[in-house]
Every structure is written in structure tokens, then in C-alpha cells.
Amino acid sequence: MEKQVLHIDCPDEKGLVYRITEVLYRHGLNIVSNQEFVDTTTDHFVMRTAFEGEETPNGVLEDLRTSLPNEADIRHAEIGDRSIVIMATKEPHCLGDLLLRYSNGEIPADVQAVISNHDNLRSLSEAFDVPFHAISHEKIDRKTHEAKVEEVLEQYQPDYIVLAKYMRIFSSDFVDRYKDKIINIHHSFLPAFIGANPYQQAFERGVKIIGATAHFVTDDLDEGPIIAQDVMPVNHSYTAEEMASAGRDVEKTVLAKAVKLLLEERIFIHNGRTIVFE
Amino acid sequence: MEKQVLHIDCPDEKGLVYRITEVLYRHGLNIVSNQEFVDTTTDHFVMRTAFEGEETPNGVLEDLRTSLPNEADIRHAEIGDRSIVIMATKEPHCLGDLLLRYSNGEIPADVQAVISNHDNLRSLSEAFDVPFHAISHEKIDRKTHEAKVEEVLEQYQPDYIVLAKYMRIFSSDFVDRYKDKIINIHHSFLPAFIGANPYQQAFERGVKIIGATAHFVTDDLDEGPIIAQDVMPVNHSYTAEEMASAGRDVEKTVLAKAVKLLLEERIFIHNGRTIVFE
Amino acid sequence: MEKQVLHIDCPDEKGLVYRITEVLYRHGLNIVSNQEFVDTTTDHFVMRTAFEGEETPNGVLEDLRTSLPNEADIRHAEIGDRSIVIMATKEPHCLGDLLLRYSNGEIPADVQAVISNHDNLRSLSEAFDVPFHAISHEKIDRKTHEAKVEEVLEQYQPDYIVLAKYMRIFSSDFVDRYKDKIINIHHSFLPAFIGANPYQQAFERGVKIIGATAHFVTDDLDEGPIIAQDVMPVNHSYTAEEMASAGRDVEKTVLAKAVKLLLEERIFIHNGRTIVFE
Amino acid sequence: MEKQVLHIDCPDEKGLVYRITEVLYRHGLNIVSNQEFVDTTTDHFVMRTAFEGEETPNGVLEDLRTSLPNEADIRHAEIGDRSIVIMATKEPHCLGDLLLRYSNGEIPADVQAVISNHDNLRSLSEAFDVPFHAISHEKIDRKTHEAKVEEVLEQYQPDYIVLAKYMRIFSSDFVDRYKDKIINIHHSFLPAFIGANPYQQAFERGVKIIGATAHFVTDDLDEGPIIAQDVMPVNHSYTAEEMASAGRDVEKTVLAKAVKLLLEERIFIHNGRTIVFE
User: Per the database record, which ranges form the ACT domain (chains A, B, C, D) (predicted)?
Assistant: First the structure.
């Protein structure tokens, strides 16, 4: 697995790859993989570089900043060193799959805690030795509830928050505070069948495919930048509940994929879309 | 390939399969395959039975009518004996794929003609020895145009009409006249990205999957009963045009599948949904 | 979910469906779904019928035996009433996924126990309250080991045995004793890359697809009747270990599907192949 | 579409990307996309760089050769400027699909001619205005037949030869002469079901998936480096012929994909495997 990763994000201009790789070469770093993309509709450049070495030599980031345009956003991450908190409501399929993968060593992060607005997922979390926090939303307003959630998040300071079927909507304030740090899994297809009972809608419409979308959370409900999508075939013999069950299988697969991409720092967000370097 | 096929469609009640197979047995028919489905939300029964024999013995349909409830809709079809007219506008990918399959013996029907509102697909159709009719919609109103189309259709009397990227909308009158006989292929996902430039919308939204849906044509634009759907993965490096190109590949695959299902009489329509016996 | 299911398996002849449904009708049973298939290469008939009712009226099986050819094999199953024992070795991905589904109510059976030849999966099993039996194969011969396994199986009397990455080969005697009752999940494609280190072989060959096959266990190693197969795309950037990791994801999906088909009694075995009524 | 492309292939060492992009920057070239891969099992580096500009300035290749290790293999290609000859035997599905795509502008190459050892595909080729050469293999030995094929190939000097269901085996001499220039489509899975009647074998084995593999042609029959693979689900109700028909659909899709990758110069061959930059 790659360990040291650089994320560079800046307006496109000639020679960017040359200037970046020159700095890395000068510091004696061996590049393991390089991925770049130029969004030609906005003339924007993004690059993900993984290089060998236990740590990044001093001065690399500084030299990159000197060498690149002022607007450049340069980030460094150590893969395997990430941390997440998972939030869920009552459904165990996505949470359980993530915890299983975590216990199998397939999640390159520390799963610090599970937060839920109900208590029924406690035994599942604790079976995998992950601390569980039930923060009920009942009888309190959204602001108070979010404050309690934030209190727990403050305690862990996770790099990312993974919504594994967390069924409550965050306020703009909350979303802003964790900008580009919260990902969600959404049944069915975005932007189709928005609203209540999507599987009932899908059933009534007689769809032949059921899907799921993992996306970043923004103020636009279920409309943040898409990270991953997949589908599963269904047919007329599926009841609405069986479609939902098929949907749960896609959801857990797509969310697991998105979490992996996120924790390996393979995702850039630009102009409302993601660039995903698989 | 199956040849003699019965379609039975009626309110569910006990003993339907028994009564149907009793009639077939009494007439000495050998059933090759039987497929039934009960829509339990509406208590409705559909059954497709294929049996051996060059022709259906006299009296079978009559005896079935006697044996089954009055409301039963009983249809008989001879597979391989069907006929279609294909309608297209300017894009050759779906039409070409159907013509190729036709010439390879993979379409169990006579492709009687191609009708287009433009002339550019003439050489493609004629290369496969299929008569081509250009009926321009320019400078005439929709009613007049449809009358001209109907005139050609009358000449061929096709069992089905396949819209292979025909980009004009039919009037309610036209659709009514060919109820349950017209199928269409629609880019992207129904009901998502309805409107102009769906691939541009998909590109801007950064979707990771492109799809196509084949459906019956009803008055609700692009909302008729779904026959088949499929998808293809795309990513950030696809331009809107490349997404459209990927989309064309899915479109042709899905339409070909729907045409095959249609001509093998594997589709029932009930309550706005299809039952497809694959 | 369907509850009462009949499996009928016999040489094909005219009127079988009629005779079967006549008996059911006579006993006042309401058929929920019927699926039949005739293997025309061997003139063999199989049928799966699900009907409503908490229990099967007395005499139905007897009357079917009277009505059908002597060679007919007629079985009755109550879905939801099944029981399984899972066997595994050291890898947790398939076992964990099955246990999760079991705890979510998605496995229509009682998971009675987990048997392993190692001890490391004990905490996973016990986290889901499933008894765990470690039966080491070390320092004893295969016959003795199998006798110990059988002793535990005798105690549970499961309907089926699911090998969820159980890495030991059974003797012919063992396989015979549980004929058509053991299913297995196999990496990669059958019959491709048989032998040691299949993912290393797949990597060296530069395959672009990784698959898994669920099958019944017979004397022919990894060659029993296939139940389900699926694949996942891979590419040049995958190491052998990453291919194996992708493979694990397919394995768990395919095994879960096969287990569901098995427990819903949707599988027939005839002439070395399966007929799967999905 | 990209136009100017560089392929660089050499033993890995520090600073390769830096040295390459330095040369391009010095010559004022704007990189559109860069893709690199290091095969860490052999310490080998490959890079594909697409840059803007109608032509490559003089001296770029020379400067790259100076800047890079002696062993480096540096190739330049102009996309859209490629040419191919298609070879087929009797089956029209792959050839027809390629010709349709060619006529739709979806093949970035000049399809110069079709060569077959039979005459039945003549009208299909000529319908798309592509010259057709029937070179019968009957009553002559392989050497003589290949000499005749080479004579026609010499006349066209294609960049690549696409075997679209060409059912004859080439001699080592022929393969050597067109090393890394011939691609083939193979039914079923490599290396599974090698031998005669693969679909019959697949049918008898009761497979649930049918696949196709596009690969470079080497001396090892059907064992050259894999370019692309895909599958299609099948089930017990498919006859061997229906499996073959499903297989034809996968074959044409996979071959079309491989041809596009080839003509856009997205494929490297190293150590018997391909690196495909999609």
C-alpha cells in the first residue's frame, strides 16, 4: 500500500508536472505513482502523487509552494494514519460491513467510534470493539442534538465522518464545519426517486435496476459530489421489500468502495464534481 | 426456438394453471415452457406457455375461453412470424445494430421497413436490403406528418414499431392507435435527467454510471412501462461527448435486448409495469 | 417470503404440470409461484411450486405420488425452517458476511454452528451468538479428523453445510454421506487457474476480471454443479494481493447469493448441472 | 480527442517523470494527460503522455533520448492517423460491429480492408465501402496461404491487424513478422475451456457466466497478453447455441473496446502482461 501522498490542486498552466516532479527529485523522493487530470472546462489541474519513504522530508511542501502558483492548494497525507467516525441510525447492513472490513484489516484507518441516534446498533459495534455513542434526537431540537454530536466528534477529531445509513439531515452550519469531510450513501439513483419510499416508487415504476450512490454531503440534500455508484438487476418478481433488500447489498458495496477511495486519498472535489484516481 | 406461444392475463383465482394445462393436455399439446406470475398487489395472474407443434389445434383458444374467467385476455402468437417497422431520426448506432442482427438471423421477425424524418440513414438501411422511407417533418404540422407516417405503416401492418432513436414526440392519438405496440430507447435513467442535453447534465453532475432504458411508449413522455435497463461505468475523465458515446453503446445493447423479448412475446403489461419472462 | 415449497423431478412426459396442479387444486391449495424446466437433452422435467398455507395438507404428497410416474422424486420443504452449519478455516470475509446477514434476518435458516480447523474465527462467531467448534486437523489423519467433524454435525443435523473458505478437502466417504448438501465457494473461475496461488497466476497472466463460483461439493475437486458465479473488473495496477482482495469481495457476494438460493429451495441438480429458479 | 501521444518504456529509476516533463516543457508543449505505471515486480516504468499541438516539434524525441536511459523505448503516435486491416472467417457479428462503428466515426483509424478465407462477408464489407479480399486456404498449404495474405497486407501496410473471428492459426513466422500488431477476440474465458466446442463445454458444465477476451496474438495459441475481458450472465435455460449467441454479444463488445484502446495507443506490453491506460 502507498503511504506518503501529495494532493495538488491549482489552475492549469504549462509545466506543472515538471515543476512538481523536479521538487520531488531534488529531495531524493521516489515516485510510486502519479495521477493527473486537467478539467478543460475550467482549466483546472489536479494531481495525486504517491512516493516512497517513511516520512516526507522537511522542506518539500515549502519548496512546492515556492515552485507552484500562489493559488495552488497543496496537501500531504499519510495513508493508514487516517481516522473516521461512523454515524448510523438503525440499519445494520452498511455499518456491519464496514466493521467487518475494519476487523479484517481492509479499512486503512482507525475506526474511532460509532455514533447513532438510536441504541440498537450498540451490540454490533461493541462486538468489534468500537466505542458506541447513542445520542437520541428525541425531545430536543436539531441544534441541541447536533451540539451533542459535535461534542463527541470533538473528542475524537476524526479525519472523516462516514454516514452509514444515518437518516437525519444536518444543518448548514454542521455541514460547513465538516466541509468535504462527510460522505453519505444514498439508496437508488441520484437524482431519481428523491423523496419518501424510493423502493416503493421503484417497484411501482417496475424498474429493472436498483442502485446506490456514495457522495459528499453538502447543503443540497443528496446532491453533493458523487464518489461511486453501482447497480444490481431486479425484475417484476421482486416486491418493494425485496428491491430494498437488493438495494442494501448495493449500498454496502458502494459505501465500502467510497470509504476506501476516501481513506487512500484518491478523491478530489472540483466544481461540484469529483475526480477519483482509482 | 419456441414457436407456439400463449399469453394469458386475468384476475387471479385458484386453479388457473390447472385449468389451462388441462385444456392443453386434452388437446395433446406438449408444453415446452410455462411461466406464471401473480401480482399480489392487484391479485392479477399472467402466464406464458410455449408448446410444441407447427400450429395450434383448432378449438384450443375456444376451450381456454370456456374454462377461464370471462375477463381473461387470451392471446396466441407464432414466434418467428412477427414483423416490425423501425423508426429512427439521424443516429445510426441503434438502427445499424438492429439491422446487423437482422441480417445475422438474430431478430425473430421480418424487418419490413425503416421510416425516418431525415434521409441520412437511407444507405445504411438499403445496405441491408430493408426499404427506407424518408418522411420529412419540415414545413408541415405534426398531425400531417403523423398521417404520412401512418400511411406507410398501414402499408406494412407491422406487429410492432421500434423507435431506434426516433427523436420526435407522437400525439396521443398516434400512441393510442398503436397502444402497447411501440417501444422506445431512452438515454440515461428514467426518470432522471429528463430534459435537454442529458449527457451534459450527467457530466456536470459527475455521474459514475451511464444508463439506458427501453420502454413502451405511452402518453407520458419517456414514462411508459420499462422493459429493460442497463448501465456502463464512466468516470471524471469522460467529456460529455464521451459519456454520450458510452451511452450509445448501452442504448444499442438494451434496445436489442428489448426487441428480442418483445418478438419472443416474453413481455406482459399490467398496471403500468411489465412482467418480463426471460 | 414463500413458505411451502414442492420440488418435483422426473422424466418428462405430457401432462405433468396438469397432473401436479390438479392435485394441488383438489386439495384447495393456492399456488403462489410455479417454475418448470425441461432439459431437452435428457428429456427430464423439474418443477418448483410454492403455495400458500401454514402447512401442507395431509395426503398431498401421497396423491402426487399416485398421479406422477414412479420415477418421480417429490420433495416438500418449509422455507424458513432450514438449518445450516458453516465451516471455515482462517479467513473471516465469507463467514463474517453470512453472520451479519444472519443477524439482520436475511438468511432464511437457523445458523446452528461454525466449525473450523483453527481457532481464530471463534470471537467473530461468538460475537453473533453462534456456537463455535474448533476441530484441529493437526497430528491426526484425515479420517480421524472427519470423524470428529461428523460427530459435531450429528449433534446439529443441519439441512446443509456451507463451506465459507474451508480449505481442506473431504474424503469421498464424507462427500457421499452429505450428497447434494454441501456447497463451497471457489476463488477465480472454474475450471480456470486450478491449483495453488490462483491470484498469483491471474496476476502474472494480467487478467482484467476476477471471479468466484459457488458450487455443490462432489468428489471432483472444485468441479461440482455450479450454483452462482460473478466477476469484478481488475487492471494492471492491482498487485496479486489486491486481486485477492477484490476476489474476496466477489466470493462473499456469490456465496451469500448461493446460500439464499439454497435455503429458498430454488436449486435442482440434474445431470451434473444445476437448474436455478431465481 | 487526444492527438499527439508519446509512449515511453524503460527500466525504472528516480526522476524519470521529471526528466520527461522537463523536455516537453522546454519545447513549449502543453501536456493534456499523463499516465505512468511502475511494475514493481520487474522495476519497469511505462508512461503515456498526450500533449496538444498539430505536430510534435522537431528535436523532442532526440532530446528525450538524450535525457533518458539508453534502454528506453520511445515511440510517438498521432491518434486518428492509424490504419487497420480486419481479418475474419465467416461470422459477421464482430466484423459488422466494427464496420458500423467505423461508419459512425467511432473508430479512430482508417479501416483499409477486410481479408477473409471465405467469400460470404463480401457484401457486408462492401456495404460499408471497405475493400474485401477473399483468400481461400483450400487446396494450398499454410505457408502459401500466409504468403498470399502477406501480399495483401504489404499493399496496405496497416498499423494493426484485427482478427474479428478469424478462425485460422498463424505460423510462428507470421506472428513474428507482425509482433505486437495483431489482436484477437476469443470466446469464453482464457485459459478456461480451451479446445473445440467451448460453448458446448460451458453448457454441459452449467456455467452461469459467458465471457470473451481480447488479446495480442503470440505463438502460444490464445495465450497472448490480455487487453480486455467481459462477461454476460446466462442460466440453465440457455441451450449451447443460445450461450454461443450471448457469447457473440460479449465478443463484439470486448473486441470493439480493445480496438479503441489499441488505436488510441493506450496499451503497453511488458513481461507478458498489458498495461492499459483507460
Answer: 5-82
- Bridge partners (DSSP) listed for residue B109: B82
Q: Which residues of D touch C255 (CB under 8 A)?
A: none
In the block, which residue shows the cell 497478453? D225
Give chains near C: 3+ CB pairs under 8 A: A, B, D
Complex ipTM value: 0.92
Non-local CB neighbours of A49 within 8 Å, separated by 6+ positions = A5, A6, A8, A20, A21, A24, A31, A33, A34, A35
Task: Please provide the CATH number assigned to the domain covering A83-276.
Answer: 3.40.50.170
> Least CA distance to A192: which residue of chain B?
B192
Q: Are the beta carbons of A235 and B278 separated by less than 8 Å?
A: yes
Exposure string over A194-215, b if 16+ CB within 10 A, otherwise e: eeeebbebbbebbbbbbbbbbb
- The structure's pTM equals 0.95
Q: Is A225 on the interface with B (CB under 8 A)?
A: yes
- State whether C36 and B33 contact (CB < 8 Å): yes
Say if B36 is an interface residue toward chain C (CB within 8 Å): yes
How many C-beta atoms surround the C-beta of residue A68 within 10 A? 20
ω into residue A191 within 30 of 0, thus cis?
A: yes
User: What Cα–Cα distance (Å) separates residue D16 from each residue in A25, A30, A130?
Assistant: 9, 10, 45
Nearest to D92 among B104, B124, B245 (CB): B104
A·B CB contacts under 8 A: 77
Query: Do the first three CATH levels of D4-78 and D82-276 match, i.e. the same topology?
Result: no
A235 and A203 in contact (C-beta within 8 Å)? Answer: no
Give CA–CA dist D277/D254, Å, rounded: 16
| Mean of pLDDT over chain C | 92
Determine contact, residues D6/D76, Cβ cutoff 8 Å. yes
Residue A128 distance to chain C (closest CA, Å): 8
Concerning whether A249 is annotated as a catalytic residue, the answer is no
Residue of A nearest to D30 (CA): A14
Written as one string, the DSSP assignment of B89-143 is -S--HHHHHHHHHHHTT-SSEEEEEEEESSSTTHHHHHHTT--EEE---TTS-HH
Question: Distance between CA B109 and CA B159 in Å, rounded?
Answer: 9
Give the other-Cβ count within 10 Å of D186's Cβ.
Answer: 25
CA dihedral A182, A188, A192, A193 (to 10 degrees): -110
Note whether B239 contacts D: Cβ–Cβ < 8 A: no
Catalytic choice (A63, A222, A230, A249): A222
Q: Tell me: domain B4-78, CATH 3.30.70.260, correct?
A: yes
DSSP calls for C22-60: HHHHHTT--EEEEEEEEETTTTEEEEEEEE-SSSPPTTH
Boundaries of every domain in chain A? 4-78, 83-276
Residue with cell 504517491: A50
- Residues in C 4-23 with any Cβ partner in B closer than 8 A: 14-15, 17-18, 21-22
Is D100 close to B104, i.e. CB distance below 8 A?
A: no
Considering the candidates C180, C222, C230, C249, report the single residue annotated as catalytic.
Answer: C222
B241 touches chain A (CB under 8 A): no
Mean pLDDT in runs of 10 for chain D (278 residues)?
A: 89 94 92 90 94 80 95 92 96 97 94 98 95 97 97 98 96 96 83 71 88 92 87 92 92 97 96 94
Q: Which CATH number fits domain C82-276: 3.30.565.10, 3.40.50.170, 3.30.450.20, 3.40.50.620?
A: 3.40.50.170
Residue pLDDT, tens place only, D180-198: 999 999 886 644 666 678 8
- Which residues sit opposite A46 in a β-bridge? A9, A37
The one-letter code for the residue type at D253 is T
Nearest-Cα distance to chain D for B120, in Å, is 12
From CA A217, how far away is CA A168, in angstroms rounded? 12
Assess D71–A contact: CB distance below 8 Å, yes or no.
Answer: no
